[in-house]
């Protein structure tokens, strides 16, 4: 903290001994002091004393504090700008999801008060609250009118009523969603559901929900969850692993985003690893090759992230836009384009 800052703030605590962004400074929680602080014009901050990266406390997730970052006052860059990560992820320098995508494995977790009886060799991977929704047919009746009478028993201008039906999402139940290495399980207040992983045929990610389809069910189910991207990623990985361990499963029936083709998935993971190894030219080649196998939004996003890292902003925007054309409901490419626009304005 500079001498000028010492007149404005006092250090409450050190959040990170080594800044996750610049890896040099200390990230400290600062409390505003003086008259401006008394008036509420000098808010408390969590800031790096070297690079000026600002951190925002986003509450607790899975028993850990989480933070997002604002680099508008910093010259540094981070691939996790606009992300909310747990403190362990910031300290490690890699998100849980990136590790899962790179290793194609999921962490095991212990669920306290688990109501589900696990099968032999079954382990739990993820657990959260969820709201179950399904599409229901809603019928609307539009009444007709009699018209006007021209003589006894004769009317002119009347019309018959019509009945129309349309689909509407309805909340079915609230409960807990559990993912294991064998099943996806919903335990609700009134309804319990179970999916075998090798029977899941489609996974869609939305801004606040995931959509799951199974060959065992006529309708798709939508689950409103707090972390849809993590849920979709974890599901894609376990279903892919279930596919590999079930030789009888017909690949042509699968429409899963990550595992629709083992080749595209493999090329994507190789590209992500090459980025981690700073072999950017090879990574670009691998990701482009993956797109020739199957054009998927998450692969375009990874390529866009690479272009952003290399400051090829025009290419990044084009690539993120391509992702939006395929998956317009996913918020990440929209946020990425907005981030580039802010970065260009800053320069």
What does this structure look like?
The protein is of the alpha+beta class and 347 residues long. It has three domains: 3-93, no CATH class; 124-139 and 162-253, PH-domain like, CATH 2.30.29.30; 262-346, Serine Threonine Protein Phosphatase 5, Tetratricopeptide repeat (Alpha Horseshoe). The chain is built from ten helices and 15 strands. The strands form four sheets. The protein has a seven-stranded antiparallel β-sheet with strand order 12-11-10-7-15-14-13, with helices on one face. The protein has a three-stranded antiparallel β-sheet with strand order 1-2-3. It has a three-stranded antiparallel β-sheet with strand order 4-5-6. Helix 8 (297-309) runs antiparallel to helix 9 (313-326). The radius of gyration is 26 Å and the shape is globular. The two termini are 26 Å apart.
Q: How helical, in percent, are the residues?
A: 25-40%
In angstroms, what is the radius of gyration? Answer: 26 Å
CATH class of the largest domain: Mainly Beta
Helix and strand string, N-terminal first? HEEHEEEEHHEEEEEEEEEHHHHHH
> Approximately how much beta-strand content do the residues carry?
25-35%
SS-derived structural category: alpha+beta
Largest sheet: 7 strands, antiparallel
Q: What strand line-up does the widest sheet have?
A: 12-11-10-7-15-14-13
Overall pLDDT confidence:
82
Determine the N-to-C terminus distance. 26 Å
CATH arch. level architecture of the largest domain: Roll
The CATH topology of the largest domain: PH-domain like
- Which blocks of ≥5 consecutive residues have pLDDT under 50? 247-261
CATH superfamily placement of the largest domain: Pleckstrin-homology domain (PH domain)/Phosphotyrosine-binding domain (PTB)
Instruction: Count structural domains.
Output: 3
Summed up, the helix count is 10
Total beta strand runs: 15
Shape: globular
């Amino acid at each position: 903290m500079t001498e000028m800052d010492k007149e404005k703030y006092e250090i409450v605590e050190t959040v990170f001994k080594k800044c996750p962004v610049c890896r040099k400074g200390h990230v400290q929680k600062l409390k505003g002091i003086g008259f401006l602080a008394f008036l509420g014009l000098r808010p408390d901050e969590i800031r790096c004393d070297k690079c000026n990266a600002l951190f925002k406390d986003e509450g607790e997730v899975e028993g850990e504090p989480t933070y997002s970052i604002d680099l508008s006052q910093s010259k540094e860059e981070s691939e996790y700008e606009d992300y909310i990560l747990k403190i362990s992820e910031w300290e490690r320098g890699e998100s849980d999801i990136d590790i899962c995508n790179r290793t194609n494995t999921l962490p095991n977790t212990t669920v306290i008060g688990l109501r589900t009886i696990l099968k032999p060799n079954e382990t739990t991977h993820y657990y959260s609250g969820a709201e179950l929704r399904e599409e229901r047919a809603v019928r609307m009746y539009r009444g007709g009118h009699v018209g006007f009478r021209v003589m006894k028993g004769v009317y002119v201008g009347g019309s018959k009523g019509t009945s129309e039906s349309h689909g509407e999402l309805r909340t079915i139940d609230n409960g807990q969603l559990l993912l294991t290495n064998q099943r996806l399980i919903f335990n609700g207040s009134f309804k319990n559901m179970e999916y075998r992983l090798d029977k899941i045929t489609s996974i869609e990610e939305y801004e606040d929900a995931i959509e799951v389809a199974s060959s065992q069910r006529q309708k798709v189910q939508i689950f409103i969850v707090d972390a849809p991207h993590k849920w979709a990623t974890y599901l894609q990985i376990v279903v892919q692993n279930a596919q590999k361990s079930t030789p009888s499963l017909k690949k042509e029936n699968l429409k899963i985003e990550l595992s629709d083709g083992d080749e595209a998935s493999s090329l994507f993971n190789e590209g992500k690893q090459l980025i981690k190894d700073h072999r950017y030219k090879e990574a670009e080649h691998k990701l482009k090759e993956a797109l020739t196998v199957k054009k998927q939004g998450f692969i375009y996003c990874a390529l866009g992230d690479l272009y952003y890292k290399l400051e090829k902003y025009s290419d990044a925007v084009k690539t993120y836009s391509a992702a939006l054309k395929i998956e317009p409901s996913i918020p990440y490419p929209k946020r990425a384009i907005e981030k580039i626009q802010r970065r260009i304005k800053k320069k």
